[in-house]
Amino acid sequence: MIFSSVDQLRKAIEGILKIEGDNVRVLDEKKLRGSLIDHLVYSAVLSDDAGVRQAARWLVRRAGVMLGVLPSSIQSLYEAMGRGDAKGFTVPAINIRGLTYDTAQAIFRAGLRGGVGPIIFEIARSEIGYTEQRPAEYACAVTAAAIKTGWRGPLFLQGDHFQIGVKRFATEPQKEIDSVKELVREAVEAGFYNIDIDSSTVVDLGKPTETEQQRDNFTIAADITAFIRRIQPRGVEVSVGGEIGEVGRKNSTVGELRAFMNGYLEELGRHGKDLKGISKISIQTGTSHGGVVLPDGSIATVKLDFDTLQTLSEAARREFGMSGAVQHGASTLPDEAFDHFPKRGAAEVHLATAFQNMIYDSVHFPAPLRERIYEYIRKELAGEKGARDTDEQFIYKTRKKGFGPFKKEIWNLPPDVLRGIGKELEDKFFFLFDKLAVLRTRDVTAKFIKPVDVPVPAPESLTGKGPVEGEKKIEAFDEGE
Q: DSSP string covering 85-132, please?
Protein backbone atom coordinates (compact mmCIF):
# COMPACT_ATOMS: atom_id res chain seq x y z
CA MET A 1 0.00 0.00 0.00
CA ILE A 2 1.15 3.52 -0.81
CA PHE A 3 -0.27 6.07 1.63
CA SER A 4 -2.34 8.73 -0.08
CA SER A 5 -1.99 11.29 2.71
CA VAL A 6 -0.02 12.00 5.86
CA ASP A 7 -3.20 11.47 7.89
CA GLN A 8 -3.55 7.97 6.47
CA LEU A 9 0.11 7.32 7.31
CA ARG A 10 -0.41 8.56 10.88
CA LYS A 11 -3.33 6.17 11.38
CA ALA A 12 -1.36 3.24 9.97
CA ILE A 13 1.50 3.63 12.45
CA GLU A 14 -0.75 3.76 15.54
CA GLY A 15 0.31 1.18 18.09
CA ILE A 16 3.49 0.41 16.11
CA LEU A 17 5.44 3.66 15.98
CA LYS A 18 4.99 6.69 18.19
CA ILE A 19 6.22 10.13 17.20
CA GLU A 20 7.74 11.93 20.17
CA GLY A 21 8.91 15.37 19.07
CA ASP A 22 11.92 14.82 16.84
CA ASN A 23 12.14 11.13 17.61
CA VAL A 24 10.25 7.89 17.06
CA ARG A 25 9.59 5.12 19.55
CA VAL A 26 9.12 1.58 18.24
CA LEU A 27 6.15 0.07 20.09
CA ASP A 28 5.81 -3.16 18.11
CA GLU A 29 8.86 -4.29 16.18
CA LYS A 30 7.15 -7.42 14.87
CA LYS A 31 4.36 -5.44 13.22
CA LEU A 32 6.85 -2.87 11.93
CA ARG A 33 8.90 -5.61 10.25
CA GLY A 34 5.71 -7.30 9.04
CA SER A 35 3.84 -5.13 6.56
CA LEU A 36 4.23 -1.58 7.88
CA ILE A 37 7.85 -1.21 6.78
CA ASP A 38 6.81 -2.27 3.27
CA HIS A 39 4.06 0.36 3.20
CA LEU A 40 6.44 3.01 4.51
CA VAL A 41 9.25 2.39 2.03
CA TYR A 42 6.93 2.08 -0.97
CA SER A 43 5.31 5.37 0.07
CA ALA A 44 8.74 6.95 0.59
CA VAL A 45 9.76 6.02 -2.95
CA LEU A 46 6.61 5.93 -5.06
CA SER A 47 4.05 8.29 -3.47
CA ASP A 48 3.01 11.26 -5.59
CA ASP A 49 2.63 13.33 -2.42
CA ALA A 50 5.87 15.08 -1.36
CA GLY A 51 4.64 15.32 2.23
CA VAL A 52 4.01 11.58 2.42
CA ARG A 53 7.45 10.82 0.98
CA GLN A 54 9.08 13.19 3.45
CA ALA A 55 7.22 11.76 6.46
CA ALA A 56 7.80 8.14 5.50
CA ARG A 57 11.56 8.66 4.98
CA TRP A 58 11.95 10.33 8.35
CA LEU A 59 9.97 7.61 10.14
CA VAL A 60 12.08 4.88 8.55
CA ARG A 61 15.33 6.66 9.40
CA ARG A 62 14.46 7.31 13.04
CA ALA A 63 12.87 3.87 13.54
CA GLY A 64 16.07 2.35 12.17
CA VAL A 65 18.15 4.28 14.70
CA MET A 66 15.91 3.11 17.54
CA LEU A 67 16.47 -0.49 16.41
CA GLY A 68 20.24 -0.08 16.17
CA VAL A 69 20.62 0.73 12.47
CA LEU A 70 22.69 3.91 12.42
CA PRO A 71 24.22 5.71 9.42
CA SER A 72 27.95 5.54 10.08
CA SER A 73 31.38 6.48 8.81
CA ILE A 74 33.84 3.67 8.13
CA GLN A 75 36.72 6.03 8.97
CA SER A 76 37.82 4.34 12.22
CA LEU A 77 37.97 0.89 10.63
CA TYR A 78 39.98 2.25 7.71
CA GLU A 79 42.37 3.96 10.11
CA ALA A 80 42.82 0.59 11.84
CA MET A 81 43.54 -1.00 8.46
CA GLY A 82 46.11 1.72 7.81
CA ARG A 83 47.84 0.84 11.11
CA GLY A 84 47.65 -2.89 10.44
CA ASP A 85 45.27 -3.46 13.37
CA ALA A 86 42.58 -4.79 11.02
CA LYS A 87 43.50 -6.76 7.92
CA GLY A 88 42.89 -9.82 5.80
CA PHE A 89 39.63 -8.71 4.17
CA THR A 90 38.38 -6.36 1.44
CA VAL A 91 35.29 -4.27 2.09
CA PRO A 92 32.54 -4.71 -0.56
CA ALA A 93 30.98 -1.46 -1.79
CA ILE A 94 27.77 -2.24 -3.66
CA ASN A 95 25.92 0.07 -6.05
CA ILE A 96 22.20 -0.71 -6.28
CA ARG A 97 20.72 0.68 -9.47
CA GLY A 98 17.28 -0.91 -9.38
CA LEU A 99 14.97 -2.90 -7.13
CA THR A 100 16.79 -1.21 -4.26
CA TYR A 101 14.62 -2.40 -1.35
CA ASP A 102 14.67 -6.06 -2.40
CA THR A 103 18.33 -6.03 -3.45
CA ALA A 104 19.36 -4.51 -0.13
CA GLN A 105 17.37 -7.17 1.70
CA ALA A 106 19.28 -9.83 -0.23
CA ILE A 107 22.56 -8.19 0.81
CA PHE A 108 21.56 -8.07 4.47
CA ARG A 109 20.35 -11.68 4.45
CA ALA A 110 23.67 -12.79 3.00
CA GLY A 111 25.48 -10.63 5.56
CA LEU A 112 23.52 -12.11 8.44
CA ARG A 113 24.20 -15.66 7.21
CA GLY A 114 27.92 -14.98 7.17
CA GLY A 115 28.37 -12.70 10.18
CA VAL A 116 29.59 -9.92 7.88
CA GLY A 117 30.52 -6.58 9.43
CA PRO A 118 31.50 -3.95 6.85
CA ILE A 119 29.22 -3.59 3.82
CA ILE A 120 29.05 -0.29 1.97
CA PHE A 121 25.89 0.72 0.09
CA GLU A 122 26.71 3.34 -2.50
CA ILE A 123 25.35 5.30 -5.41
CA ALA A 124 27.30 7.37 -7.92
CA ARG A 125 26.53 10.88 -9.13
CA SER A 126 25.59 9.53 -12.55
CA GLU A 127 23.43 6.76 -11.06
CA ILE A 128 21.44 9.25 -8.99
CA GLY A 129 20.33 10.73 -12.29
CA TYR A 130 19.53 7.77 -14.50
CA THR A 131 18.08 5.57 -11.75
CA GLU A 132 16.07 8.50 -10.32
CA GLN A 133 17.23 7.86 -6.76
CA ARG A 134 18.25 10.90 -4.77
CA PRO A 135 20.34 10.23 -1.63
CA ALA A 136 17.43 10.47 0.84
CA GLU A 137 15.38 7.96 -1.14
CA TYR A 138 18.29 5.55 -1.49
CA ALA A 139 19.12 5.79 2.22
CA CYS A 140 15.50 5.14 3.13
CA ALA A 141 15.23 2.02 0.95
CA VAL A 142 18.44 0.55 2.40
CA THR A 143 17.45 1.38 5.98
CA ALA A 144 14.01 -0.15 5.46
CA ALA A 145 15.68 -3.32 4.15
CA ALA A 146 17.84 -3.47 7.29
CA ILE A 147 14.72 -3.17 9.47
CA LYS A 148 12.88 -5.80 7.43
CA THR A 149 15.67 -8.37 7.70
CA GLY A 150 16.62 -7.70 11.31
CA TRP A 151 20.08 -6.32 10.51
CA ARG A 152 21.66 -4.38 13.36
CA GLY A 153 24.77 -2.24 13.49
CA PRO A 154 26.44 0.56 11.54
CA LEU A 155 24.99 1.36 8.13
CA PHE A 156 27.65 2.53 5.70
CA LEU A 157 26.10 4.74 3.00
CA GLN A 158 28.53 6.12 0.43
CA GLY A 159 28.51 8.70 -2.32
CA ASP A 160 30.43 6.92 -5.07
CA HIS A 161 32.16 8.79 -7.91
CA PHE A 162 31.01 12.23 -6.84
CA GLN A 163 32.71 13.21 -10.01
CA ILE A 164 33.91 16.37 -11.68
CA GLY A 165 32.50 16.38 -15.21
CA VAL A 166 35.23 17.10 -17.75
CA LYS A 167 33.06 19.04 -20.19
CA ARG A 168 31.43 21.17 -17.51
CA PHE A 169 34.75 21.82 -15.77
CA ALA A 170 36.30 22.99 -19.03
CA THR A 171 33.72 25.74 -19.47
CA GLU A 172 32.68 26.66 -15.90
CA PRO A 173 35.16 25.09 -13.46
CA GLN A 174 33.95 26.69 -10.23
CA LYS A 175 30.31 26.06 -11.04
CA GLU A 176 31.08 22.36 -11.57
CA ILE A 177 32.98 22.13 -8.29
CA ASP A 178 30.13 23.87 -6.48
CA SER A 179 27.60 21.43 -7.97
CA VAL A 180 29.56 18.52 -6.50
CA LYS A 181 29.69 20.28 -3.13
CA GLU A 182 25.92 20.78 -3.27
CA LEU A 183 25.46 17.05 -3.90
CA VAL A 184 27.87 16.25 -1.04
CA ARG A 185 25.79 18.42 1.32
CA GLU A 186 22.58 16.69 0.25
CA ALA A 187 24.15 13.25 0.70
CA VAL A 188 25.62 13.98 4.13
CA GLU A 189 22.25 15.31 5.31
CA ALA A 190 20.72 12.00 4.17
CA GLY A 191 23.19 9.98 6.27
CA PHE A 192 25.92 9.35 3.71
CA TYR A 193 28.97 9.58 5.97
CA ASN A 194 31.31 8.16 3.34
CA ILE A 195 32.08 10.23 0.24
CA ASP A 196 34.31 9.33 -2.70
CA ILE A 197 35.57 12.44 -4.46
CA ASP A 198 36.42 11.71 -8.09
CA SER A 199 38.35 14.58 -9.61
CA SER A 200 40.64 12.16 -11.47
CA THR A 201 38.69 13.12 -14.59
CA VAL A 202 40.72 16.34 -14.80
CA VAL A 203 44.14 14.64 -14.64
CA ASP A 204 46.15 15.85 -17.64
CA LEU A 205 48.61 13.17 -18.77
CA GLY A 206 50.01 15.61 -21.33
CA LYS A 207 51.76 17.62 -18.62
CA PRO A 208 55.52 16.99 -18.18
CA THR A 209 55.57 15.84 -14.53
CA GLU A 210 53.31 13.67 -12.41
CA THR A 211 52.73 16.55 -10.01
CA GLU A 212 51.53 18.81 -12.82
CA GLN A 213 49.40 15.99 -14.24
CA GLN A 214 47.68 15.56 -10.86
CA ARG A 215 47.55 19.25 -9.83
CA ASP A 216 43.91 19.99 -10.66
CA ASN A 217 42.96 16.60 -9.20
CA PHE A 218 44.58 17.08 -5.79
CA THR A 219 43.61 20.76 -5.57
CA ILE A 220 39.93 20.01 -6.12
CA ALA A 221 40.02 16.95 -3.85
CA ALA A 222 41.52 19.00 -1.01
CA ASP A 223 38.96 21.78 -1.51
CA ILE A 224 36.02 19.35 -1.36
CA THR A 225 37.55 17.49 1.60
CA ALA A 226 37.75 20.75 3.53
CA PHE A 227 34.11 21.45 2.62
CA ILE A 228 33.11 18.02 3.95
CA ARG A 229 34.92 18.69 7.22
CA ARG A 230 32.97 21.95 7.63
CA ILE A 231 29.55 20.36 7.13
CA GLN A 232 29.96 16.92 8.72
CA PRO A 233 27.73 16.32 11.78
CA ARG A 234 29.12 16.76 15.26
CA GLY A 235 30.81 13.55 16.39
CA VAL A 236 31.12 12.14 12.85
CA GLU A 237 34.36 12.06 10.87
CA VAL A 238 33.19 11.41 7.32
CA SER A 239 35.34 8.89 5.47
CA VAL A 240 36.60 10.54 2.29
CA GLY A 241 38.13 8.79 -0.70
CA GLY A 242 40.25 10.17 -3.52
CA GLU A 243 41.09 8.86 -6.98
CA ILE A 244 44.27 9.11 -9.05
CA GLY A 245 43.41 7.04 -12.11
CA GLU A 246 40.19 7.33 -14.06
CA VAL A 247 38.75 3.84 -14.51
CA GLY A 248 39.20 2.62 -18.07
CA ARG A 249 42.40 4.60 -18.69
CA LYS A 250 46.06 3.74 -18.09
CA ASN A 251 47.12 1.82 -14.99
CA SER A 252 48.15 3.85 -11.95
CA THR A 253 51.68 4.07 -10.55
CA VAL A 254 53.26 4.66 -7.14
CA GLY A 255 54.74 7.87 -8.58
CA GLU A 256 51.25 9.15 -9.32
CA LEU A 257 50.10 8.18 -5.84
CA ARG A 258 52.95 10.14 -4.24
CA ALA A 259 52.45 13.14 -6.51
CA PHE A 260 48.75 13.25 -5.70
CA MET A 261 49.10 12.71 -1.94
CA ASN A 262 51.97 15.14 -1.41
CA GLY A 263 50.12 17.85 -3.31
CA TYR A 264 46.79 16.97 -1.68
CA LEU A 265 48.15 17.12 1.88
CA GLU A 266 49.86 20.44 1.18
CA GLU A 267 46.66 21.92 -0.26
CA LEU A 268 44.53 20.51 2.57
CA GLY A 269 46.83 22.20 5.09
CA ARG A 270 46.04 25.53 3.50
CA HIS A 271 42.36 25.01 4.25
CA GLY A 272 42.91 24.45 7.95
CA LYS A 273 45.22 22.96 10.53
CA ASP A 274 44.86 19.26 11.39
CA LEU A 275 42.10 18.53 8.87
CA LYS A 276 41.80 14.80 8.37
CA GLY A 277 42.49 13.69 4.81
CA ILE A 278 41.35 10.79 2.67
CA SER A 279 41.19 7.26 4.07
CA LYS A 280 41.65 5.36 0.78
CA ILE A 281 42.72 5.88 -2.81
CA SER A 282 40.99 4.62 -5.97
CA ILE A 283 43.30 3.49 -8.75
CA GLN A 284 43.17 2.02 -12.23
CA THR A 285 44.39 -1.55 -12.72
CA GLY A 286 42.91 -2.56 -16.07
CA THR A 287 39.14 -2.70 -15.48
CA SER A 288 36.32 -0.59 -16.88
CA HIS A 289 32.85 0.18 -15.60
CA GLY A 290 30.47 -2.53 -16.78
CA GLY A 291 33.25 -4.45 -18.49
CA VAL A 292 34.20 -4.50 -22.17
CA VAL A 293 31.19 -5.57 -24.22
CA LEU A 294 31.70 -7.85 -27.23
CA PRO A 295 29.45 -7.68 -30.33
CA ASP A 296 27.26 -10.55 -29.07
CA GLY A 297 26.64 -8.72 -25.79
CA SER A 298 28.97 -10.89 -23.71
CA ILE A 299 31.82 -9.50 -21.60
CA ALA A 300 35.44 -9.83 -22.63
CA THR A 301 37.91 -11.39 -20.22
CA VAL A 302 39.93 -8.66 -18.54
CA LYS A 303 43.49 -9.07 -17.31
CA LEU A 304 43.50 -7.18 -14.03
CA ASP A 305 46.90 -6.03 -12.76
CA PHE A 306 46.92 -7.37 -9.20
CA ASP A 307 50.58 -6.47 -8.79
CA THR A 308 49.69 -2.79 -9.24
CA LEU A 309 46.82 -3.16 -6.78
CA GLN A 310 49.10 -4.73 -4.16
CA THR A 311 51.98 -2.29 -4.66
CA LEU A 312 49.79 0.80 -4.38
CA SER A 313 47.84 -0.60 -1.42
CA GLU A 314 51.10 -1.22 0.45
CA ALA A 315 52.43 2.25 -0.42
CA ALA A 316 49.15 3.90 0.62
CA ARG A 317 49.31 2.25 4.05
CA ARG A 318 53.06 2.53 4.65
CA GLU A 319 53.60 6.10 3.45
CA PHE A 320 50.26 7.79 4.11
CA GLY A 321 48.42 5.71 6.72
CA MET A 322 45.46 4.99 4.45
CA SER A 323 43.52 1.72 4.41
CA GLY A 324 44.85 0.88 0.96
CA ALA A 325 43.79 1.03 -2.67
CA VAL A 326 40.25 0.74 -4.01
CA GLN A 327 39.31 -1.36 -7.03
CA HIS A 328 36.48 -0.13 -9.28
CA GLY A 329 34.65 -1.90 -12.08
CA ALA A 330 35.05 -5.36 -10.55
CA SER A 331 31.63 -7.00 -10.49
CA THR A 332 31.90 -8.47 -14.00
CA LEU A 333 35.27 -10.12 -13.35
CA PRO A 334 35.38 -13.93 -13.36
CA ASP A 335 34.55 -15.63 -10.05
CA GLU A 336 38.11 -16.83 -9.53
CA ALA A 337 39.39 -13.23 -9.40
CA PHE A 338 37.69 -12.15 -6.20
CA ASP A 339 39.74 -13.95 -3.56
CA HIS A 340 42.81 -12.13 -4.91
CA PHE A 341 41.56 -8.80 -3.53
CA PRO A 342 42.06 -9.59 0.18
CA LYS A 343 45.24 -11.54 -0.58
CA ARG A 344 46.68 -8.46 -2.33
CA GLY A 345 45.61 -6.05 0.39
CA ALA A 346 42.87 -4.13 -1.44
CA ALA A 347 40.92 -2.01 1.02
CA GLU A 348 37.65 -1.84 -0.90
CA VAL A 349 36.13 -3.19 -4.10
CA HIS A 350 33.23 -1.60 -5.98
CA LEU A 351 30.54 -3.86 -7.39
CA ALA A 352 27.59 -2.79 -9.54
CA THR A 353 26.89 -4.01 -13.05
CA ALA A 354 26.73 -7.75 -12.32
CA PHE A 355 23.73 -7.29 -10.03
CA GLN A 356 21.93 -5.14 -12.57
CA ASN A 357 22.56 -7.93 -15.09
CA MET A 358 21.24 -10.57 -12.70
CA ILE A 359 17.97 -8.68 -12.33
CA TYR A 360 17.42 -8.20 -16.06
CA ASP A 361 18.60 -11.69 -17.04
CA SER A 362 16.87 -13.60 -14.26
CA VAL A 363 14.49 -16.35 -15.36
CA HIS A 364 12.04 -14.75 -12.92
CA PHE A 365 12.09 -11.30 -14.57
CA PRO A 366 9.00 -10.94 -16.82
CA ALA A 367 10.05 -11.09 -20.48
CA PRO A 368 7.33 -8.62 -21.63
CA LEU A 369 8.54 -5.96 -19.18
CA ARG A 370 12.15 -6.52 -20.19
CA GLU A 371 11.26 -6.06 -23.85
CA ARG A 372 9.28 -2.88 -23.08
CA ILE A 373 12.37 -1.48 -21.35
CA TYR A 374 14.59 -2.44 -24.29
CA GLU A 375 12.19 -0.85 -26.77
CA TYR A 376 12.19 2.33 -24.71
CA ILE A 377 16.00 2.33 -24.82
CA ARG A 378 16.10 1.75 -28.59
CA LYS A 379 13.69 4.63 -29.15
CA GLU A 380 14.52 7.21 -26.48
CA LEU A 381 18.28 6.65 -26.20
CA ALA A 382 19.10 5.95 -29.83
CA GLY A 383 21.54 8.86 -29.88
CA GLU A 384 23.80 6.99 -27.44
CA LYS A 385 24.35 4.07 -29.81
CA GLY A 386 27.88 3.96 -31.19
CA ALA A 387 28.37 3.79 -34.95
CA ARG A 388 29.79 0.27 -34.69
CA ASP A 389 27.65 -1.00 -31.83
CA THR A 390 25.54 -4.07 -32.41
CA ASP A 391 22.07 -4.03 -30.88
CA GLU A 392 23.34 -6.39 -28.17
CA GLN A 393 26.22 -4.07 -27.27
CA PHE A 394 23.97 -1.02 -27.26
CA ILE A 395 21.34 -2.65 -25.02
CA TYR A 396 23.93 -4.01 -22.61
CA LYS A 397 25.68 -0.67 -22.19
CA THR A 398 22.46 1.34 -21.93
CA ARG A 399 19.91 -0.80 -20.09
CA LYS A 400 21.05 0.61 -16.74
CA LYS A 401 19.04 3.67 -17.77
CA GLY A 402 15.81 1.68 -17.77
CA PHE A 403 15.66 1.49 -13.98
CA GLY A 404 14.55 5.11 -13.52
CA PRO A 405 11.72 5.38 -16.07
CA PHE A 406 10.40 1.91 -15.12
CA LYS A 407 10.97 2.17 -11.37
CA LYS A 408 7.31 1.77 -10.44
CA GLU A 409 6.83 -1.29 -12.63
CA ILE A 410 9.99 -2.94 -11.33
CA TRP A 411 9.22 -2.24 -7.67
CA ASN A 412 5.70 -3.63 -8.18
CA LEU A 413 6.74 -6.96 -9.67
CA PRO A 414 4.73 -9.91 -8.24
CA PRO A 415 5.94 -11.24 -4.85
CA ASP A 416 7.05 -14.59 -6.28
CA VAL A 417 9.17 -12.79 -8.88
CA LEU A 418 10.77 -10.61 -6.21
CA ARG A 419 11.47 -13.65 -4.03
CA GLY A 420 13.05 -15.53 -6.93
CA ILE A 421 15.31 -12.64 -7.95
CA GLY A 422 16.11 -11.93 -4.30
CA LYS A 423 17.28 -15.50 -3.67
CA GLU A 424 19.57 -15.41 -6.72
CA LEU A 425 21.07 -12.13 -5.54
CA GLU A 426 21.47 -13.34 -1.97
CA ASP A 427 23.46 -16.39 -3.09
CA LYS A 428 25.70 -14.21 -5.26
CA PHE A 429 26.34 -11.76 -2.44
CA PHE A 430 27.19 -14.56 -0.03
CA PHE A 431 29.66 -15.98 -2.56
CA LEU A 432 31.34 -12.59 -2.92
CA PHE A 433 31.45 -11.98 0.82
CA ASP A 434 33.19 -15.32 1.23
CA LYS A 435 35.71 -14.52 -1.53
CA LEU A 436 36.40 -11.06 -0.08
CA ALA A 437 37.00 -12.65 3.36
CA VAL A 438 34.42 -10.53 5.19
CA LEU A 439 32.59 -13.48 6.70
CA ARG A 440 32.77 -13.38 10.52
CA THR A 441 33.93 -9.75 10.62
CA ARG A 442 31.14 -8.31 12.77
CA ASP A 443 33.34 -8.32 15.88
CA VAL A 444 36.24 -6.47 14.25
CA THR A 445 33.82 -3.91 12.83
CA ALA A 446 32.20 -3.39 16.23
CA LYS A 447 35.65 -3.00 17.82
CA PHE A 448 36.54 0.02 15.72
CA ILE A 449 33.18 1.53 14.68
CA LYS A 450 31.15 3.36 17.33
CA PRO A 451 28.02 4.72 15.59
CA VAL A 452 26.76 8.18 16.51
CA ASP A 453 23.08 9.09 16.60
CA VAL A 454 22.78 12.26 14.54
CA PRO A 455 19.52 14.07 15.39
CA VAL A 456 17.17 14.70 12.46
CA PRO A 457 14.26 17.12 13.01
CA ALA A 458 10.78 15.89 12.20
CA PRO A 459 9.70 17.09 8.75
CA GLU A 460 7.19 19.84 8.09
CA SER A 461 4.66 17.36 6.77
CA LEU A 462 4.45 15.84 10.27
CA THR A 463 4.88 19.00 12.37
CA GLY A 464 2.77 21.34 10.24
CA LYS A 465 5.24 24.13 10.99
CA GLY A 466 5.93 25.12 7.42
CA PRO A 467 5.34 24.37 3.74
CA VAL A 468 6.40 21.00 2.38
CA GLU A 469 9.23 21.46 -0.07
CA GLY A 470 9.54 19.33 -3.18
CA GLU A 471 12.67 17.34 -3.98
CA LYS A 472 15.53 18.60 -6.06
CA LYS A 473 15.36 17.94 -9.75
CA ILE A 474 17.07 14.74 -10.84
CA GLU A 475 20.34 15.75 -12.49
CA ALA A 476 21.33 14.33 -15.85
CA PHE A 477 24.96 13.36 -15.39
CA ASP A 478 26.67 10.66 -17.37
CA GLU A 479 30.41 11.22 -17.46
CA GLY A 480 32.75 8.38 -16.59
CA GLU A 481 30.15 5.89 -15.37
A: SS-S--EEEEE--SSHHHHHHHHHHHHHHHT----EEEEEHHHHHHTT
